[in-house]
Here is the input.
Amino acid sequence: MEPVIELKNLVKDFGEFRAVNGLNLNVYKGDVCGFLGPNGAGKSTTIRMMLTLIAPTSGSISFFGKDIKTHRSEVLRKIGSIVEKPDFYKFLSAKKNLELLARISGVTVSKKKIAEVIELVGLHGKENEVVKTYSFGMKQRLGLAHALMCDPELIILDEPTTGLDPHGIIDFRNLINYLTKDKGITVFLSSHILSEIEMIATSMAIINNGKTVVQGTVGELMDNEKIILQIRSDNNSKVRELLQANFKVEADSLHQDYTELHGRTSDVPSMIRLLVENDINIYEVNKRTKLEDLFLQLTHN
Amino acid sequence: MIRKIYILLILTSVSCRICAQTDEAGKIIDKLIKKFQLVNTYSADVVIRPEISFLKMLPQKATIYFRQPDKFRIKTTGITILPKQQFDNVMNLLSKRDSYIPLLTSKETINDIKLSVINVIPVADTSELILAKIWVDEVRNLIVKAQLTTKTNGTILINYKHGALAEYGLPDEIIFTVDMKKFKVPKAVAADINTESKSVEEQVKQQKPGKIIVTIKNYKLNIDLPDNIFKN
Amino acid sequence: MFAGLLYSELIKIFSKPRSYIGFVAITIIVSLIQMAMYLDGLNYFSFVTGPLQASFNLEGNLVSGNMVAFVIIQTLILQIPLLVALVTGDLISGESATGTLRILASKPVSRTAILFAKFTAGLLYTLLLLIWLGFMSWGLALFIFGPGDLIVLKSEELIILQNADIGWRFLLAFGISFISLSVVATFSLCLSCFADNSIGPIISTMAVIILFTIMGTLEIPFFDAVKPYLFTTHMIVWRNSFDLPVSTPQICTSLTIMIAHIILFLSVALYRFNKKDILS
Here is the structure.
């Protein structure tokens, strides 16, 4: 299957500083690809190169099988984007901004379509107010509306949930699900909110020092064999002793009313059986995977 | 004693000579005035063409009006430049017989025409005019040339050319020649592009006398002119 | 597509309050000058006509609409470039400062097309400003003071132009002024491509104009070699429209040099804008 996004050996130098150092990345149709990396890893620089805001020093960028250098207009017509905080023409209303930006794109966007996207992002009733009066979150929603108004096949989002309140974040998550599942749109987004990425991404690329450290589907990357367990019982210290003695436990900690340990998924039934056999009353067992741990592990210098 | 008689005789003869010259000049001027008074009013179309080194303008059209004894007006839609002495100063001056002493000084021939040269000396010390000199063609009873020396405006030379209305003393062309030595162009507000300093020759040329040539046509004589024409 | 881009640029320009500063400034300044001329114009013009009136009689309407218009235009000619640069210097750097350049440059339209649209919009703004100046200074002056001849004071001579011969000269002068201001507009647009805020290009444009004007005015042999190539030297060639006769070769030379400057500045702007990494 041809990738929707293909970055090959992408390099960007700012003078003597190498911001992106031979980055390789593929994103396929229908993916929601989380693009992660610590501060200064080269995420924004990569996204800016993808949108031709910055010229790569070397390497290639292709969308839909077409090189951006030779098919720029054709390719960008199919892409909607938000780069960092969305900024608009503050003396124009939201509606006028969208109309103006559609005109600049050379794409005919009907008033009905503009009204639709405004409704979709939750700005209905505010579209005739000048953007100067908008809050940060409202501008973020408007940015989303702008990304969607030309019926893109690919959306590139850089920190899209920054400034959104919890309702906004939930709305955003639902919107991404709707776009990918119902509309078949491919989404490429970078974020620092790992829990959000974990919830919506189907694939991930983690970069560090301008290079791809790891890329793959969520299932491949999130090692289901590794597990963090939280066990609440009537004898937490005995739980800890027993499990440490009988299983491969990487780390554990004793909290006031529960024990937390890092173990293996396949050991979980045996662990519970052992505890029951040792007359320990188990009240609650919680398991979770940790993207944060993976992230820190992979990006630790 | 004999010396005193000789001096007395010389003084008497000089006085007689001056009286004779004054009488003769007076007769010539009287004839000019009589001719001048044949026309009570007139209007005419004029074209004024300055030929002054620092001044550039296309010939300007105007209309002049005159009514005896001294009402004169020039009307134009644009800006015209005329010498201070204007057209009618000479006859205006000559008409006031008591204000000056005429003196026939010499005879000259210019362009094969014999001319009587008369000095007109103002009587009053306060007069702006210091001295006027007129060249008169006695045969045709016309002033051919005049030179006016004033306190504040220097000397101006006026040449007259007569044509169809010579019998009324009305010229077809008047050429004023003005001394430009004292005149300086005021400093411009904005600089000019690519200006070069003028050479000494050009600066000398700029100081040459300036001319204003007035061509007069379409005289209408003794017409009815309302008073408001002569009001400012 | 270019029409859409141009229309969008014009909307952006005229949605900003700063774009109206020029029009308001011209309205106020011209009105004040015309009021002063109405009350005391003769005294003002005596500066020009005074020495002449010592030796000659000047007959006619000295305070005509054409005279007043000429004085106003001559006075404002140093200020109008600032009013132009205020808008054209903001075209790229202003969007960079507000962050909208990111959106613009990621659109499926070439940077060359964007820059040409901004350049054209800048020229149209300049033209509108000049038309407003023409209306206020000439049109209104003719209405208030009436038609009449025009006395032009040059450094070495006086020129008196007749009313019937003035109309086309003013139109020619405005046409030349448009080219002059287009040089300023293009120069400030070029500087705008190098900056991320508007103050720099606007002030730099004015600084360069003032510097070049000083160099062009000082009669120092050291500057003589460069004077013919400074665009400010040729910006005042509009005054040659009021020569008698009009010095066509000099006007053509100046126009050619100014158009060459426009092409040069536009080329530099195009190169810079196309190569620019948009980091803001």
Notes: The first strand of chain C starts at residue 56 and ends at 59. Strands of chain C lie at 56-59, 150-153, 158-161. The mean pLDDT of chain C is 91.
